[in-house]
Amino acid sequence: MTSAAQNRGVIDILAHVDELKEENTLLSLVSQPPRQFLPSTLIIMFWSVVALIIAPMVMVSLPNPIVMIQDQHYEPIVYCMQIPAAIFVAGFLGARFGTVTIAMYLLMGILGLPVFANGGGPYYFSDQVSSGYLIGLLLCPIAIERTIIQAYVQKGWLKGRSLWILLGALLSVLIIHGFGALGIGVYALMHHMSAHQAVIWLTRLSETSILYDVVFGIMALASIRIFRLLFNPCLY
After folding, report:
1. pTM for this structure?
2. Would you state the CATH architecture of domain 31-235?
3. 77: β partners
């Protein structure tokens, strides 16, 4: 091999190494939530709010897991995509921008815009039995940021990443449904609802959907780094 050919070979190897380093640096970057506020970040937050507004309108018919377990007659449930959408926004934007984005969404509803499932308005949180679930959405970004960072520190799905994503989804769903249950309890006290009626509401709002919230939450969190790569110029 001539000296020129050897030099070209060395240059090609070095270029390939540089590409790998650049790729690793980019993956490391998008494994962390965005920290710096950019004008384009505000655009991403705006469209995230739009997604949160649209999500309650997206309904899908799914098998009822409770009925399937009890081996009863098949009765599908109508599942709302709001919780998976909120989990995605929480993980995608991180504790700082995710909390602000969800707070913007909630503020729009409090100010009277019909962005919630049953409308909106200043008295929505005292008049609606399901309002506690909305408060739970606000806490998700802070609660799961560390789990998402840990998930993408891992080198592969079988080396811990999947477990951290599962933990993040479980934590999100437990927070949302925990505050939902608390909200039902407060509503029952304020409106003199019986304990039996409160349990019926809790069953209707949580029992049949919580499993799907976890499943779709896992899918949402597993796709975060892909979307951060796609929107990298706007976030970092």
Report:
1. 0.84
2. Orthogonal Bundle (1.10)
3. 62
